[in-house]
Amino acid sequence: MNASTPASGRLSVVGLGPGDAALMTEQVRATIAAASDAFGYFPYIERLQGLGHLQLHASDNREELDRARAALDLAALGRQVLMLSSGDPGVFAMASAVFEVLDVATPEQVQRWATVDIAVQPGITAMLAAAARLGAPLGHDFCCINLSDNLKPAAVIEKRIRLAAQADFAMAFYNPCSTSRPEGFRRALRVLAEECEPGRLICFARNVSRPDETLQVLPLDAVTPEMADMRTVVIVGNSMTRQVGQHVYTPRSYPHA
Amino acid sequence: MNASTPASGRLSVVGLGPGDAALMTEQVRATIAAASDAFGYFPYIERLQGLGHLQLHASDNREELDRARAALDLAALGRQVLMLSSGDPGVFAMASAVFEVLDVATPEQVQRWATVDIAVQPGITAMLAAAARLGAPLGHDFCCINLSDNLKPAAVIEKRIRLAAQADFAMAFYNPCSTSRPEGFRRALRVLAEECEPGRLICFARNVSRPDETLQVLPLDAVTPEMADMRTVVIVGNSMTRQVGQHVYTPRSYPHA
């Protein structure tokens, strides 16, 4: 091997799960232990402490495409590179960003990255960790919507929520709102109020699986926009979703009209 | 402690992941190791070999409610009981069945089960394992639909697929068909053909994460109903889903109309 024929490196796009290290898969833990470098948003890099002997490359959360290019460049040199996501990398996270970068690569980048072995390794995504803590609110057909209008028009989000309500899907909302985009959840509530009965169950799971986790379940007509922040996953029941004791569940069966 | 005040037992409804033991979480592995009894469908019980010292209670896959009652009864005697699901217990699996049984419990059962601590522990569900192997086809808003009409009317399934297509969700189909219900995926394809362009990408992941895993990606107009069986998860791209090299991904961003 010499400088003109580098070893084939690997880029592993891994999901760390929602927070609790016990929710990480053994596959991801082994991949971290064998890696040489890790790229990711600052707070995800912090979660690697004690899990490997890694060179760390932390970056801000608006720099996904640059981060993906830098990780591919390093893997092309023969390194074993991690790209970190919280939750699952395929759900509103880094996996799509890596493939977007490959899709628009220059001919020079295509050639440079050709030897890189790319693997996506799943993790427990926030909505499924939240659902487990609540009971089984996603036990029937459901959908998963990112409420941020950073990368799509607000009108598309509203249309999706409206059609999902008409289809009587349960729904999980990611990124219900943030400091820079406070309107997401307020808009969603307006559509839900138009499409759903006032008693529809709305579940809030904040910092799920972490020591400061909070869970809250309310009927739609008692919900206010400020109940969700950027650390909250919101789960909207379907018309059949019920409470039994401390738990919320959606029945497996659905009635005939 | 005496016979009239039994120890408080625990029922842990756990997800084993899609097949590969490395996709199990450390939480579930530890819960299995500490349990006394395990209930589940025969093939899931087989996956426990070497993971604990358990009394095994295997049953057929049409006996979910009886299985849940038996597990609660045993936990009420102070045992540490597992209820097994493949994938994630909250996605078309045993978690809802356990809460359904609690919801319709007789007063005598309510009293008997009152001391049981019930916990749901998430696992990697098949669609997210499949998405990771394919690339990132669920990287934008998506929905998850069980195509079996065992517990809901076929008309509800068709309506949901139609509205999901109109909302331009990516979709994951569970239980696309089975020997006893061969029509599920054929009906879904008919709706997709009416609502989507002929080149829409359809992904088939069969036995995902197992040694005999197969992956296939085709445009909608090349798909035939027999391409999916009960061991297949089908992922339907949205209108933006693309291939790059061997991978399929859905971009994070969505265009303005």
List the helices and strands and how they pair.
The structure is a homodimer of 257-residue chains.
Chain A (H helix, E strand, L loop, with lengths): L9 E6 L10 H9 L2 E5 H5 L8 E5 L4 H13 L3 E6 L8 H10 L3 H7 L3 E5 L4 H9 E2 L5 E5 L7 H13 L3 E5 L9 H12 L5 E6 L7 E6 L12 E5 L5 E3 L2 E3 L8
Parallel strand pairs in A: 1-4, 1-5, 2-3, 2-4, 6-13, 7-8
Antiparallel strand pairs in A: 8-11, 9-10, 9-11, 12-13
Helix pairs in contact in A: 3-4, 7-8
In brief, what are we looking at here?
2 copies of one chain form a homodimer. Chain A has 257 residues and is an alpha/beta fold.
Structure notes:
The structure is a homodimer of 257-residue chains. Chain A has eight helices and 13 strands. Chain A has a five-stranded parallel β-sheet with strand order 3-2-4-1-5, with helices on both faces. Chain A has two domains: 10-124, Tetrapyrrole methylase, N-terminal domain (Cobalt-precorrin-4 Transmethylase, domain 1, 3-Layer(aba) Sandwich), CATH 3.40.1010; 127-249, Tetrapyrrole methylase, C-terminal domain (Methyltransferase, Cobalt-precorrin-4 Transmethylase, Domain 2). Chain A has 257 residues and is α/β, with parallel strands linked by helices. Helices cover 30% and strands 24% of the residues of chain A. At the A-B interface, helix 1, helix 4, strand 5, helix 6 and strand 6 of A face helix 1, helix 4, strand 5, helix 6 and strand 6 of B. Strand 7 (142-146) of chain A pairs antiparallel with strand 7 of chain B.
Strand order of the largest sheet of chain A: 3-2-4-1-5
CATH class of the largest domain in chain A: Alpha Beta
In CATH terms, what is the architecture of the largest domain in chain A?
2-Layer Sandwich
| Uncertain regions spanning at least 5 consecutive residues of chain A | none
**Distance between the first and last residues' Cα of chain A:** 68 Å
- CATH superfamily heading of the largest domain in chain A: Tetrapyrrole methylase, C-terminal domain
Beta-strand percent range of chain A? 15-25%
- Which sheet architecture does the biggest sheet of chain A show? 5 strands, parallel
Helix content of chain A: 25-40%
